[in-house]
Amino acid sequence: MNEQLISEAKRYIEGLFAGHSDGHDAEHSLRVFSNAMKIAENEAECDIEAVALAALLHDADDHKLFDTKDNENARAFLNGHGITGSKADFICQIINSVSFSRNRGRKPETIEGKIVQDADRLDAMGAIGIARTFAYGGKQGRSLEDGIKHFHEKLLLLKDELNTDPARRMAAERHRFLEEFIEHFNSEKQEL
Ligand code: NI
């Protein structure tokens, strides 16, 4: 894997997400990258560089944050680093197979897509998932109760929607912590 290309991709997303602090930020993309690398280490053969770049760039054109079309931001980085044609298309195809809302019930077709999707979903679980839920909810003007609703509509379902065994192992503790958090939340609420 071209390490320099990877560090330039990290720098690119740091610039792109500058000023964002709502859970869809550069740190999220960096964690998804590191989750993806851990999954890929234990998964059958895959194009590791495509996994790395897709993980780092997976939110570069997220419609909640950017008004771009056809993976414009991701492609700008890739093309600027000599990645064009079918290789750039492949990376964008991985990116487009990741989104929870756009792909409900549909699994990515490639192992690379499965890995990056799992890596993204892991970051919506556990302590980080909880922190991101309330950070994003607060920005949207949502109440804590709305945040808890989001647990039931999305976060608690993720464990059974993962594609790869390494991700399932990484998810177990994070899922348990989500359940424990809800238990505590509900019991503290009843004390009012
Ligand atoms: Ni994401």
Descriptive account of the structure:
By secondary structure, the chain is mainly α. The protein has one domain: Hypothetical protein af1432. 64% of the residues lie in helices and 0% in strands. It has nine helices and no strands. Helix 1 packs antiparallel against helix 2 and helix 2 crosses helix 6. The radius of gyration is 17 Å and the shape is globular. The structure holds nickel (II) ion. Nickel (II) ion binds next to helix 2.
What's a quick, concise take on this entry?
Helix content is 64%, strand content 0%.
Labels describing this entry:
mainly alpha; binds nickel (II) ion; Hypothetical protein af1432; 192 residues
Query: Compounds present?
Result: nickel (II) ion
What portion of residues belong to β-strands? under 5%
CATH topology: Hypothetical protein af1432
Number of helices: 9
Write the layout of secondary structure elements.
Layout: H1 3-16, H2 26-41, H3 48-57, H4 72-80, H5 85-96, H6 111-122, H7 126-139, H8 144-153, H9 165-190
Bound molecules: nickel (II) ion (NI).
Residues 28, 32, 58-59, 120 line the site of nickel (II) ion.
